[in-house]
Amino acid sequence: MKHFLVDIQYTAPIEKIDEILPHHRAFLQIGYDRGYLLCSGPKYPRTGGIVIARAESKEVLRNYFEQDPYWQNNAAQYTFIEFNPVKFQPFLENWITGKF
User: Fold this and answer.
1) I need a labelling partner for 25 at 20 to 30 A (CA). Which of 53, 65, 72, 94 fits?
2) Are 53 and 38 in contact (CB under 8 A)?
3) Which residues have a Cβ under 8 Å from the Cβ of 77 and sit 6 or more positions away?
C-alpha cells in the first residue's frame, strides 16, 4: 500500500461548499468503509481540507476522489502527496501495514 496526504483546496464560495458538505461526508464514508481513509477534516481557516489516505496507487486514489461531490461540482482542487510513514503510533500499525 502507498500512503498519501490529500490536500483539498476549495475553489468555490463557502456557501456552495456548505451545500455540498453532507454529500462530501457521505462520500468520504465510502472511503473509510473501503479502508482507504484514516482521517479527514477541514483546514482552519476554512480554505479546504486534509485527508490521510492509502491505496494501491495514486491512480486508484485519484479515481476514488474523482467521485467526490466537491470534485464533480468543480468546487475544489486536489493535491496528492505520497509519503512513507516510517514512524507512527503503535496503534496504527495494522492500518499502515494493511494487516487486519
Assistant:
1) 94
2) yes
3) 8, 9, 11
In the three-class reduction of DSSP (H, G, I as helix; E, B as strand; rest coil), residue 31 is classed as: helix
Q: What confidence tens digit (pLDDT) does each residue in 23-51 have?
A: 999 999 999 999 999 999 999 999 999 99
Q: For residue 82, list its beta bridge partners.
A: 4
What's this model's pTM, rounded to 2 decimal places? 0.94
Phi, psi of 74, deg, nearest 5:
50, 40
54 touches 4 (CB < 8 A) = yes
Cell of 61: 486514489
Are residues 21 and 76 in contact, defined by beta-carbon separation less than 8 angstroms? no
Check if the beta carbon of residue 21 is closer than 8 Å to that of residue 45.
no
